[in-house]
Write a structure and sequence with these properties.
The structure is a single chain. The chain contains 3 helices and 5 strands, in the order ββββαβαα. By secondary structure, it is of the alpha+beta class. The chain has a single domain, classed as 3-Layer(aba) Sandwich (Adenoviral Proteinase, Chain), CATH 3.40.395.10. Helix 2 crosses helix 3. The longest helix is centred in the middle third of the chain and has 21 residues. It starts with a strand and ends with a helix.
């Protein structure tokens, strides 16, 4: 997900990346964020907005499926903090590459450097 940090300012396109996973096996949504926690109301409001839209869309398109997700809770997974305000995108890429639903991948400074090389 990409969260604009100043949505009402048309000149400020600064934002923050985080991940929302739909875990069908464990019947929940998982939010991984390297900068914010559940105490951050902006994060929870943003994540819940999109999760509710996914639930509505699923219900509309898969109403006859044996798997229904409208009751799935949201778990905010504890991750390591990134230590700055610029590497959230690299942490997100690390989560995409290694998240398997149990152990939070360790995204270190070395990982960020390697991801920057790949991205460049």
């Amino acid at each position: 997900m990409f969260q604009e940090l100043a949505p009402h300012d048309p000149h400020d396109k600064c934002g923050h990346h985080y991940v929302i996973c739909l875990d069908l096996k464990n019947q929940r949504f998982e939010v991984l964020d390297s900068m914010c926690s559940t105490a951050d109301a902006d994060l929870t409001l943003h994540a819940e907005f999109f999760i509710n839209n996914v639930k509505e869309t699923w219900n509309r398109h898969y109403e006859n499926s044996k798997v229904q997700i409208k009751h799935f809770p949201t778990e905010y997974v504890a991750t390591t903090n990134q230590g700055n305000t610029t590497d959230c995108g690299f942490h997100r890429l690390g989560y995409f590459a290694k998240w398997e639903g149990r152990l939070v991948p360790a995204v270190t400074t070395t990982t960020v450097v390697e991801l920057r090389k790949i991205y460049t």
